[in-house]
Amino acid sequence: MTDASSAGARNEVAITAFAPPSVVVAVAVVVVVAVAASPARADRPRDTPTAIEVDRDSAPAGRVGPGFDDGAPVDAWGVSLRAGWIERPIELPAGAFGGGSPASRPVRRRETLALGAALALGERIAVDLLLRASHQIGDRLTAAGNPAPLARQVFHDVRLGGRVRIVGGRARAALVRGELTLPTGDDQQLAGDARWTLAWSLIGRAVLAHDIAIAGTAGIRLHGAEVAVGDRLIGDALFAAAGASVPLPALGLSGAAERIAVTGELLGALGDHVGDLAGPSPVEARIGAQMQLSPELAIGVHAGAGLGDQIGAPRFRALLEVAWAPRAHRRPEPAPPAPPPEDPDDEP
To answer: Which entry of 93, 99, 254, 275 is 20 to 30 Å from 171 by CA?
Structure first.
């Protein structure tokens, strides 16, 4: 069994433990098809080290939330604007491009603007679209002997996403999500993948007492082309994330804090291995706060840092997001019928 097949098998076991039987069957079909198609190219990674995305932030579009889709309901539609700043999302040690190559920071800093939109298709289905553009500075490939400078302004791959709620309701639910990125970004400037990527995941969400929300997700990301970056490999990977949102009143505060919640999350990935090349396994922790200014308008601020020296785990991250998401007009539930009036003739 190849390493790509091993990754798919591990993920399938994890899904079996948490998903309903019907979901397991559907996901297993996807795993078999995807893994069967991957070995042919998995042993031949492309030697195009700039054709990667060094910041794979997977925050959903069209709403304020954590850095992953936490399954929060989308009532009707929403639009969002997200501004991000990251420091050193990719650092390569000395010798990464062969003996004598110096240490380098192909991207040392990046400021990103992301515009997103989400649309609910009924009660159970939601789709979203994300567009990103960045300003960046860094060494690009000077450590590999390529003097071409890093482009300052870049566009990223277009990301399309969708999810289906399988079981549960607004308070507790299990969902399946799929994401497709199209190779429209600047793949010669570390701002886009060489080809498409496809990711799918399972999401679990629960709202507890005092409106405390917890969520987790796990899945797999497949690459249309795996890329060698010196002695590293950017390719198929398993990923997972977990987070919580706690309103300030649940912490004993009230008053103006009624609409504010503090958040915490942990995100990670496990890279593939092909021959002597190992994929990065970045882990990042984030904390933040979300404020609901009105029923439609929300803002969020987040700060994070990578735990370890891995491609995709920045030394520091700061985020500011704003979203406008109108509430759907739901039909009020019918009141129970009134009991019939007592007949006076029935009195003793």
So the answer is: 254
Write out pLDDT tens, residues 170-206. 899 999 999 999 999 999 999 999 999 999 999 999 9
In a domain, 335, yes or no: no
Domain span at residue 269 reads 3-327
Number of domains in the chain: 1
Report the alpha-carbon distance of residue 179 to residue 181 in Å, rounded. Answer: 7
Per the CB < 8 A criterion, the answer to whether 212 and 250 are in contact is yes
Residue count of the chain:
348
pLDDT tens track for 120-142: 999 999 999 999 999 999 999 99
CA 232 to CA 235: how far, in whole Å? 10
Which uninterrupted H or E stretch holds 99?
none
pTM (predicted TM-score) = 0.80
Please give the Cα distance from 304 to 275 (Å, whole number). Answer: 33
Residue pair 265/242 in contact by the 8 Å Cβ criterion? yes
- Cα radius of gyration (the chain): 23
Residue 332 falls within a domain, yes or no? no
Q: Is residue 336 part of a domain?
A: no
H or E element in which residue 47 lies = none
How do the residues of the chain divide into helix, strand and coil, expressed in percent and rounded to 5?
15, 45, 40
Residue with tokens 């700043």: 85
Picking from 237, 239, 243, the residue whose alpha carbon sits closest to that of residue 286 is 243
State the angle between helix axes of 21-37 and 3-18 in degrees (0 to 180), rounded to the nearest 10: 170
- Is residue 260 in a domain? yes
Cβ-based neighbours of 112, under 8 Å, separated by 6 or more: 55, 82, 83, 84, 85, 86, 132, 133, 134, 156
Nearest CA-CA partner of 138 in 101, 88, 194, 186: 88
d(CA 261, CA 244): 10
284: nearest Cα among 56, 92, 63, 111: 56
What gap in Å lies between CA 219 and CA 244, rounded to an integer? 19
